Amino acid sequence: MRRLVGRQGVGGVSLRRCERACACACASRYRVSFFTTHTGGSISTAAMHFQCSPDLVNGVHMRAAVVRDGKGNAEALHVVDDFPVAPLVDQVRATPGTALIKVHAAGVNRPDIMQRAGLYPPPKGASPILGLEVSGEIVAVHNFNSNENSNEMEMEMEMEMEEENDPFVRGLGLGSKVCALTNGGGYADYCFVQLNQCLPIPDTVSLTDAAGLPETYFTVWHNIFQRGRLQDGETLLVHGGSSGIGCTAIQLAKHVRNDVTVAVTAGSDMKCSACVDLGADVAVNYKAPDDSWDQALRAQLNGGVDLILDMVAGDYTPQNVKLLNMDGRVVIIGLMRGPKSEVSLAHVMTRRLSITGSTLRPQSARAKMTIGRELRKHVWPLWNTDKLKTTTDEVYALSDAAAAHRHLESSTNNVGKIILDCECGR
Ligand SMILES: NC(=O)c1ccc[n+]([C@@H]2O[C@H](COP(=O)([O-])OP(=O)(O)OC[C@H]3O[C@@H](n4cnc5c(N)ncnc54)[C@H](OP(=O)(O)O)[C@@H]3O)[C@@H](O)[C@H]2O)c1
After folding, report:
1. How buried is 138 (Cβ within 10 angstroms: 0-12 exposed, 13-18 middle, 19+ buried)?
2. pLDDT class of 151 with cuts at 50, 70, 90
3. Which residue has the higher pLDDT, 37 or 370?
4. How far does CA 272 lie from the centroid of its chain?
5. Which residues line the pocket of ligand 1, CB cutoff 6 A?
6. What tens digit of pLDDT does each residue of 373-419 get?
7. Domain 217-357 is found in CATH 3.40.50.720
8. Is 135 helix (H, G, I), strand (E, B) or coil?
9. For 4-32+45-202+391-421, which CATH class?
């Protein structure tokens, strides 16, 4: 992309009242000239546009689930109704490429439980309110604006930016319905999001079910395909196959690549059959009294595996390493059995193994933007082919967030996602 070269180190945002005849019913309209500095001192500029629903007048408050005393068990989670919305609107006004979503539903994830317990603090600048994914409607937005009234210089800049800025993101405006990976704040009536972490609602998916897609799809895409480099014809093992993450991993491995054999571990026969229904070829009940899970897997697979998506770690790691084929990879995304393991590095060396891992939330905005784009390109079209299924296990009202946490934590008979309905009781 060509860049307009400007003074080194200069950047900023200037606001002026919008004179344009917007089709939208925005209560406050501003043209925003946005200047970003880039390494080497070149500057990109583009016309940005802030729009806000007239309902979001000053003094509006919202409900949000918060943790009493900052951390605790599920009982510490309770809903307050006096959170001011204005600071969130101001944050959108001040930050190009962001939006405020009126939340329809929010997904519940294991990392929320860890955050509630004080074990997974939000990154700097992120909302302290729990909730990593939402679905809903955009009610304030600060987006690029292609408009025939742009002056010549702005139009040239917008055209240059178009190459870099995706049409889906540019098309998001007031009233757009989306699901989004958030940096926090989903258990609430309104949630601040980055536009390029939004995904369209597939035609075949309800707005409620869509709330359970972003966190698992972003995580699975990154760890199985970008980091784990799953190839056609390989064998994938997913520990915790019936978890929200596991249900997504089974389906993406089967439908994004060809001829992948998927094996899973899960904690009951019912959970194992649910994984098989989603496409798993081999499912081992890791709580079964007879064989250990790795012996049972070896017997059914007739060999080892090429990639392991591991949320268990701890004492599973030596068995994981032994199970891997030549050039095998293990990607660690959770530590359900603890962070410490002892493995024979001789296996790593002689079989050229890779042990890696990641956490999604602290990754850069650019990394998340890339994952979002790849999901829209390679995965979202699959929703039109009946290949993918949502796996909502149960929906709770936002006011019952504590019960939703108890359900996920107990891990008794849940398969897939637990969702909070944030419309209920509004
Ligand atoms: N790194 C990241 O970016 C990232 C992002 C999201 C989630 N995660 C992690 O991914 C995991 C799944 O998250 P989720 O939200 O989908 O939670 P979830 O539904 O609560 O899943 C937890 C899963 O762990 C399984 N598990 C526990 N002990 C096991 C063992 N010994 N062997 C095999 N499976 C075992 C459970 O299986 P049973 O119920 O059958 O016992 C359950 O399916 C969590 O560890 C979470 O922290 C990581």
Report:
1. buried
2. low
3. 370
4. 25
5. 109-111, 215, 219, 239-240, 242-246, 265-267, 271, 286, 311-312, 333-334, 336-337, 358-360, 408, 411
6. 999 999 999 999 989 999 999 999 999 999 999 999 999 889 999 99
7. yes
8. strand
9. alpha beta
